[in-house]
């Protein structure tokens, strides 16, 4: 296996299912909510811390003696300010388990001075002032002043490992700017925020578990039917058409399951049709085997056949077979109805005619149950012509068998059976309700051979008359089924016997040429019109001997 195929196989193995993807989407959604919430929570925590501290500081300053005087803080430099000192001491002692106040002082700047001053109480209530040099906070304070922040606002700045919160304590009457600085170590500030994050993470884990169950519920709700449908489709793809997809919802997934079930029904129908077609093809092959695989080759005789079924199987058949006495059996027949039933009876009629044609010489009546001794050593053996007639008992024998055994099914056949003596040209026949045959010569139709009895299989003990013709050299006998004369054109015209007769009355060369002429004209007439009946033809020509 190539590397690319290995990679593809690996990726396919780890490809998550729909349910897993939905659950993962819920978890990712929860993680995004957590990150956004954590960021907002941190920002709000800082703002809350600064706002509360700013309010406390400004409130306490407003309670100091002289706080109403302009620049009372600046005026207290190098003077004792016990109340302000006490306030800063209180703020310095605000350290908690999470942070420690490292520095508390006041940053001040005059309007006409570019420098910042640090006001603080080094050793008591006397306030001192130092000019600030190289302090990283002054630049940010200048920017803050440029933004014209309102008093009582606070801001946290970080530098040199410290987090310093500056509270704007400038009074409305002050001409200078004053900012109270509360310096806290960075680790302490981080600890303070960490405490708040602990609560946030705790609530996040609870929400994550909740989202996991919600995700699993929706995954089962949405992906469950899809996975079921996928399993059913896999089984169907392997050829199991007994499966169906359960329809559990009325949404698009339910509609998909319904359509999938309709598709399975269509596949079942298609499979049934394919099986039926397969069986029909087998039946067609079997039926073809019932037709003679070869035509007896007789001196001075030319026999041709044509068979064009309208469907896979046919009710028409022809037969040409040699009898034990040297005579030739000629059959052309059309079983009623269409399809498989007609084809089955075609095989039965064909077999009965063949069997009874041989067995008739052992019977003295139309009853098959009584068999006599053969006439080989019988001094009263029939003549050749009588023997031909005896062979024709196959027709009443077949009629009785079909009518008595299968009478309830009302199946019958129009059938012509003739026994030809190839030496003399004598043809004895029975036409059981079949289309009239034509005996033709060079001048046209010499004789029309009409039915000598009803169709075979209608009623038991039916009487059939025997007809006889003598075929002279140069004459031809043509038989056909009603699929020829009743064929229809696209304009719904019928071919008719007259059209057939006009074709066979024309000069001919051979039996094969005659049948090809009829076939070509017939199928040109039919053109694109659907054929509903089989076309079968039989031509027997006695050739003029050249010897």
Give an account of the 3D structure:
The protein is 44% helix and 19% strand. The chain has 547 residues and is α+β, with helices and mostly antiparallel strands. About 3% of the residues have low confidence. It has a 6-stranded antiparallel sheet with strand order 3-2-1-6-5-4, with helices on both faces. Strands 7-16-15-12-13 form a 5-stranded antiparallel sheet. Strands 8-9-10-11-14 form a 5-stranded antiparallel sheet, covered by helices on one side. The protein is rod-shaped and about 170 Å long. α5 runs parallel beside α6. The chain starts with a helix and ends in a 5-residue tail after the last strand. It folds into 3 domains: 179 residues, Beta-Lactamase (2-Layer Sandwich), CATH 3.30.450; 41 residues; 252 residues, Phosphatase 2c, domain 1 (4-Layer Sandwich). A hairpin with a 5-residue loop joins β10 and β11.
Write the layout of secondary structure elements.
Blueprint: H1 3-13, H2 18-62, H3 82-92, E1 101-109, E2 117-120, E3 128-131, H4 136-146, E4 154-159, E5 162-168, E6 177-185, H5 186-237, H6 252-290, E7 301-308, E8 316-322, E9 328-335, H7 339-359, H8 384-391, H9 394-405, E10 413-420, E11 426-432, E12 437-441, E13 444-449, E14 467-470, E15 476-480, H10 482-485, H11 496-504, H12 511-526, E16 535-542
Antiparallel strand pairs: 1-2, 1-6, 2-3, 4-5, 5-6, 7-16, 8-9, 9-10, 10-11, 11-14, 12-13, 12-15, 15-16
Helix pairs in contact: 2-5, 5-6, 6-7, 7-9
